[in-house]
Amino acid sequence: GLARELKDLGADVVVTDEELQDKGFAERVKEWTNGGREKVRLGLNCVGGKPATAMARVLSPEAHMVTYGAMSKQPVMLPAGLLIFKNIHFDGFWVSKWAERNPAEKKRTVEDVLSLTRKGLFKDAPVLEVPWSFETKQEVLVEAVQGTLEGFRKGKGVFVFQNT
């Protein structure tokens, strides 16, 4: 399943939204962080809603949670205690704006990623190629896009333009 594929790509731990929101999740985090001695300093949120709140709860004091998407279309709800007692920092990140404001850093980042790619340090994610030509039926294209909107499927959907 998806968890195995993510681990094959290099993930150490894969957690579902349901597991993240489970009451015993903080104890599982302690197992992964040497009894809680290793700090969880960064949370990356592209979902919003209850999963984001659950993730924020297991961050270490002074940690940062960066929101860069809102796939659930639900607000990020923050318990005041995380702000007051743990001093968690909540930041937003919009890659297009960042790139626009930091062209030299964007160039350096792209060069770094290309260098790592050339060294073979990235594993390829599965790709689902969808041929697109004059003969391609509209339903095929709609189905490919709909599959992306509905969640994970076997590979990243990539349209391959042919005779167009």
UniProtKB/TrEMBL annotation:
Q: Which UniProt keywords apply?
A: NADP, Oxidoreductase
Q: Do you know which InterPro entries this protein is assigned to?
A: ADH-like_C, Mito_Enoyl-ACP_Reductase, NAD(P)-bd_dom_sf
Alcohol dehydrogenase-like C-terminal domain mapped to chain residues: 5-100
Q: Which Gene3D superfamilies match?
A: NAD(P)-binding Rossmann-like Domain
One of the GO BP terms on file: fatty acid metabolic process
Q: Name one GO cellular component term.
A: mitochondrion
Pfam name, any one: ADH_zinc_N
Q: Which GO terms describe its molecular function?
A: oxidoreductase activity
Protein name per the record: Alcohol dehydrogenase-like C-terminal domain-containing protein
